[in-house]
Design brief:
single chain; 323 residues; alpha+beta; RNA Polymerase Alpha Subunit, Chain A, domain 2; 5-stranded mixed beta sheet; 5 helices; 18% helix; 50% strand; rod-shaped; YbbR; YbbR-like protein; c-di-AMP_regulator
């Protein structure tokens, strides 16, 4: 018995080898998940729904091969070249799976895709600016625009045909009394299946305020650039101004409105009819002014000084004679 130990070892090795081959060749089923790659989609066709990025595949084969199957580099290639607008049934062909020949594809879940496709369409539509914010009483949006005013959209024909305009995303406007003009760049608010060129526009919003007409007696202020003494007549003018209602609620405009007259340095002594420029609070305009011009009298400064000296001498002589 002791002399046959070599035969016992050999028999054990043969039995182990036979068991390994038999068990390794045993056929088993297993579910694996594989990614789907799509090819052949025509340029004028868009897939709206029905496709899946992954499928479940039941494979059958030797236990060793199935257990060690590496699915990271295996994908199901689906050719969509025959897709047409509308509902399409696309069957998944097991022979399209690049698996070893000893592994059989038993089942694919789902076995087919119900694919809805549509023709791609382009269209030029208007862009509508949108904004958000709470305005104080008497303030309102007077006008708005976008630059550019239109955009070219692209997408499924069913969606594009129903679109006449595309809104922008809302521009935030400062609460209360906004500035006259608010400008900002903002993207378009596009539906999920629609693209646009351009997809960002410049929004311009023009705000205004309710106004009321009031009468103001405005003082005339001289800006004298000449070398002469200047006097103006009249020293006040009557204006009818259109002013914001919130400004009028703060009080009178008498201390907020005036008119400026510029006296040029090249004017000669004498009387000159000059126009004036109103100085007004923001968002205030002049409707009527009376008179349209004022009279500015220029007198050499030496005459003013001589007249002053003469009057002083006369006064002294009068006082002397009285004594």
């Amino acid at each position: 018995m002791k002399g046959n130990w070599q035969f016992l070892i050999l028999a054990f090795l043969l039995a182990a080898t036979a068991w390994f081959f038999v068990s390794g060749r045993e056929r088993v089923d297993a579910w694996v998940e594989l990614p789907v790659e799509f090819t052949g989609v025509q340029k004028d066709i868009v897939i709206r729904r029905g496709l899946r990025n992954r499928v479940e595949v039941r494979v059958r084969g030797p236990q060793g091969l199935v257990r060690n199957l590496d699915t990271r580099n295996v994908a199901y290639s689906l050719d969509l070249n025959g897709i047409k607008p509308g509902m399409n049934t696309v069957n998944l062909d097991p022979s399209s799976l690049p698996l070893p020949g000893s592994i059989e594809v038993v089942e694919i879940d789902p076995p087919r895709f119900q694919v809805v496709a549509d023709r791609v369409e382009e269209k030029v539509v208007a862009v509508k600016p949108q904004w958000r914010g709470e305005l104080d009483d008497h303030y309102y949006l007077r006008g708005n625009e976008t630059i550019p005013a239109v955009t070219k959209i692209r997408g499924p024909k069913e969606f594009v045909d129903r679109i006449d305009s595309i809104p922008t995303q809302a521009v935030d406007v400062e609460t209360g009394a906004p500035t006259t003009v608010v400008e900002d760049k903002t993207p378009l608010a596009l539906p999920d299946e629609i693209t646009a060129v351009p997809d960002v526009v410049q929004v311009r919003l023009v705000f205004d305020v309710d106004k009321k007409d009031v009468e103001v007696n405005a003082p005339v202020r001289l800006e004298n650039f000449s070398s002469y003494e200047a006097k103006v007549s009249p020293d006040h003018v009557d204006l009818t101004v259109r002013a914001p209602v919130p400004l009028l609620k703060e009080g009178s405009l008498d201390d907020k409105v005036s008119v400026n007259v510029v006296v040029s340095e090249n004017l000669e002594p004498g009387k000159h009819e000059l126009t004036y420029v109103p100085k007004l609070p923001p968002r205030t305009t002049v409707k009527v002014s009376e008179p349209k011009t004022v009279t500015v009298t220029l007198v050499p400064k030496s005459q003013q000084e001589s007249a002053g000296t003469h009057n002083a001498t006369r006064s002294d002589n009068t006082n002397a004679s009285t004594e």
